[in-house]
Design brief:
Radius of gyration: 22 Å
Largest sheet: 3 strands, antiparallel
Oligomer: single chain
Number of helices: 6
Number of domains: 2
Strand content: 5-15%
Structural class: mainly alpha
Order of helices and strands: HHEEHEHHEEH
Number of strands: 5
């Protein structure tokens, strides 16, 4: 009995500290210092939540920029099933998927003769990537401009305005958030 009581008291105290006090403290700090990130980096449009800047969405209309392919199943961009396909670059299934996506992208962009940007035909490690490279956005701008009946220069200006540089000027690559670009496109070009 001498050993059980201190063990139960320690267990109860640690449960309160690590299961209640610490999470409340961290949540309070996050809400006060980083409220946008703590609440999911949600994007609002016309008073409604339309998505998150951290999770990609499927766009298939020619009037919109297309996202990087998603590897989540059973549906695309499923946050509950985050994870890549885990197929190496020499895997036959991976190669078939890339060839099929290259064929589809080339068919949708017949005026483009250069190489297809890699992020338009391969999935990201999480399968949820919300961003594409500026090269992927520029590759698609002719299709979007034609579908919206506007000059390519209008679309290029929007891409330039929504291109984010490297984080802290040294980490990662330049990127364009597809949802934010498509929302700006709807506001600028009807």
């Amino acid at each position: 009995m001498k050993l059980i009581r201190p063990a139960l008291v320690s267990f109860g105290l640690l449960t309160v500290l690590t299961g209640l006090a610490y999470p409340l403290l961290v949540t309070g700090i996050a809400q006060s210092v980083f409220p946008d990130a703590a609440n999911g980096s949600l994007i609002h449009h016309q008073g409604k939540v339309v998505g998150s800047s951290l999770i990609g969405q499927q766009f298939s209309s020619n009037q919109y920029f297309w996202s990087r392919p998603s590897a989540t199943a059973p549906m695309s961009y499923n946050g509950a099933a985050s994870g890549g396909a885990n197929l190496g670059p020499t895997n036959p299934d991976f190669l078939k998927g890339v060839v099929a996506r290259v064929t589809a992208i080339r068919a949708a962009h017949p005026a483009q003769t250069g190489p297809v940007p890699v992020d338009l035909v391969t999935t990201s490690a999480s399968g949820l990537d919300p961003d594409i490279s500026p090269a992927s956005a520029y590759y698609q701008m002719g299709r979007v401009a034609a579908a919206r009946h506007v000059p390519v220069s209008v679309i290029q200006t929007l891409i330039d305005q929504h291109t984010q540089g490297r984080q802290w000027r040294m980490f990662g690559e330049a990127r364009v958030n597809v949802l934010q670009l498509n929302l700006a496109l709807d506001q600028k070009v009807r």
